[in-house]
Design brief:
about 550 residues; mainly beta; Methylamine Dehydrogenase, Chain H; five-stranded mixed sheet; four-stranded antiparallel sheet; 40 strands
Length: about 550
């Protein structure tokens, strides 16, 4: 007599889609192999090209105020509200799938929390700015202070290292002394005396709208750029343009001449600008802010090249951005903890600019998961209802690409946990969802008293709202699609993408259950439909 095999009662976790970002600073190295984010008190290191979890650095008991990576990804610097600054060395494992972070030094850089930090292009110097207006420059390897700059007691909001191109001694001597001012002579002499130190500058922006240029050789402020009237949030330098661009919450972008330190152009952006920088070897400038849109500007003319864009929701507002010439994308950080990656623009490659849209989104956290369901016949996508009016589609398929083969293009195979798309259309939090037998049709019910039917066609990158069902007086708590398989050989069985389910059933807090007929032909996106049959709860 065969013995009955006992049922398995314990299971091991195979794969995890975990949160990596809950607000705060974000950093990435020049090779885009390490993404550093803050998760509460901890720092998370992730490979952004394939979503692999690389390391988690435990906090010191206080929230992280800011963090950064050196350009080469050799060091991670973390500052927290405890007034400590910790410097870690990062070493890849032999397999290349994890990083070992070793604490090499713990310092107390300021008597107030460090709000902003910056690293020079060589990864040698680190600048820290506190809430008291003090700025310090550190040797990362040695862990000692090389410079201390003191301005007004106003919060430092932006820092940027840059280098000024040196002029040769011969060209300096060939100029007529009579045609040069004394200030120009002194500047030329500084630039040729010591090319390795004199050429390094540090630009700082503060909460009072002032931008100051600090000379690391003279150890003093050599220029005071006074035009903004609110927090300076971003500073960038272009050696080819000999210009600095500054962005402020006073809703303006300003381009400055890096030789005379005079204003070249001022552009009103009509939004709180949080991120800005040069693109395309300085020919273009990007900006982003509270409206949640990436905007591209002509550096020479100061004219916006992207078409006019409607303001997005408050949750999609941008509060930080990262771009360096070595990176294959612009990374913008949204208020809802989403990291949006945009393709680079080039002035030479196109005469007109389309409305910028991210080619990839990385959800820092999915927040509270209310409901979820598999999509498609192979169950390769997971639909998530996440305490939001949008439904997130996430890949749960194992990518066949090797990590070393992953590229920053739209056509690459999604990795496990990668955001594929957003189903946008509801005006309030989505409570429930259901999928038909084919996996191509998903119904959603939300607190906006409506249900929607969505058509999922990943082969054509199409995720459209097929129909909207309005008629409930209160929020929906349940939706259901039929699961019965169509007859063998029928058109609905062989071509489910073009044959939606025949009906939808919804349940609501208004104590009714409604059955809706689904239009068989493609209607206008989001068209409303009337209830076919209603079941009401009878009063006792």
């Amino acid at each position: 007599m065969a013995t009955k095999q006992p049922l398995k009662t314990t299971f091991d976790v195979e794969r995890v889609i975990r949160p990596i970002y809950t607000g705060g600073s974000v950093a990435v190295d020049n090779k885009a192999q390490i993404l550093a984010t803050t998760l509460g008190e901890d720092a998370i290191l992730t490979n952004p090209s394939n979503g692999k979890h690389l390391a988690q650095i435990e906090g010191d008991g206080e929230a992280i105020s800011t963090l950064t990576l050196t350009p080469s990804g050799s060091h991670l610097i973390i500052c927290s509200r405890s007034l400590s600054m910790r410097i870690f060395t990062l070493k890849w494992s032999s397999e290349g799938d994890s990083i070992e972070a070793s604490l090499v030094r713990t310092l107390k850089p300021h008597t107030t929390p460090v709000i902003v930090i910056a690293v020079d292009r060589t990864g040698t110097l680190l600048a820290t700015g506190g809430t008291d207006g003090a700025i310090k420059v550190w040797d990362i390897s040695g862990g000692y202070v090389t410079h201390t700059f003191r301005g007004p007691s106003v919060l430092v909001s932006a820092l940027r290292f840059f280098e000024v191109a040196a002029r040769s001694a011969s060209s300096r001597n060939s100029k007529g002394v009579k045609n040069q001012s004394k200030a120009a002579d002194e500047e030329d002499e500084e630039e040729t005396d010591n090319a390795t130190t004199t050429n390094f500058r540090l630009a700082s922006g503060s909460q009072d709208g002032k931008v100051r240029i600090w000379d690391l050789n003279k150890r003093s402020c050599i220029a005071n750029l006074d035009s903004h009237v609110s927090d300076v949030q971003a500073i960038d330098y272009s050696p080819t343009q000999h210009a600095i661009v500054t962005a402020s919450r006073d809703k303006t972008l300003i381009w400055w001449d890096a030789k005379s330190w005079k204003i070249r152009k001022v552009v009103p952006c009509l939004e709180l600008v949080e991120a800005a920088g040069f693109l395309d070897d300085g020919n273009l400038t990007y900006s982003a802010g509270a409206n949640g849109c990436l905007r591209i500007w002509d550096t020479d003319k100061g004219a916006e090249l992207t078409p006019k864009q409607s303001s997005k929701s408050e949750e999609e507002g941008i509060f930080a951005g990262i771009y360096r010439p070595e990176l294959p994308f612009i990374l913008l950080v949204q208020v809802d903890h989403t990291l949006a990656l945009y393709e680079l623009a080039s002035k030479a490659s196109t005469a007109t600019f389309a409305t910028p849209e991210p080619f990839r989104r990385i959800s820092g956290t999915h927040d509270e998961i209310i409901d979820m369901a598999y999509l498609l016949p192979d169950h390769s996508i997971l639909a998530l209802a996440t305490n939001s009016e949008d439904v997130r589609l996430v890949s749960v398929a194992d990518s066949k690409q090797d990590a070393s083969e992953m590229t920053w293009t739209k056509s690459e195979t999604p990795y496990f946990g990668q955001d594929v798309a957003l189903l946008r259309g509801h005006d309030d939090i989505v409570i429930a969802l259901d999928v038909d037998w084919s996996g191509h049709w998903v119904a959603t019910g939300a607190k906006d008293n409506t249900a929607k039917l969505w058509r999922i066609d990943p082969a054509n990158d199409s995720h459209i709202c097929w129909a909207t069902f309005s008629g409930h007086a209160e929020s929906l708590g349940a939706v259901a699609l039929p699961r019965t398989l169509p007859a063998e050989g029928s058109a609905a069985r062989t071509d489910p993408l073009n044959h939606p389910p025949p009906f939808l059933i919804t349940g609501s807090q208004d104590q009714t259950i409604k059955k809706w007929e689904i239009p068989p032909n493609s209607p206008a996106t989001g068209s409303k439909n009337e209830c076919e049959i209603c079941f009401h709860k009878k009063s006792p």
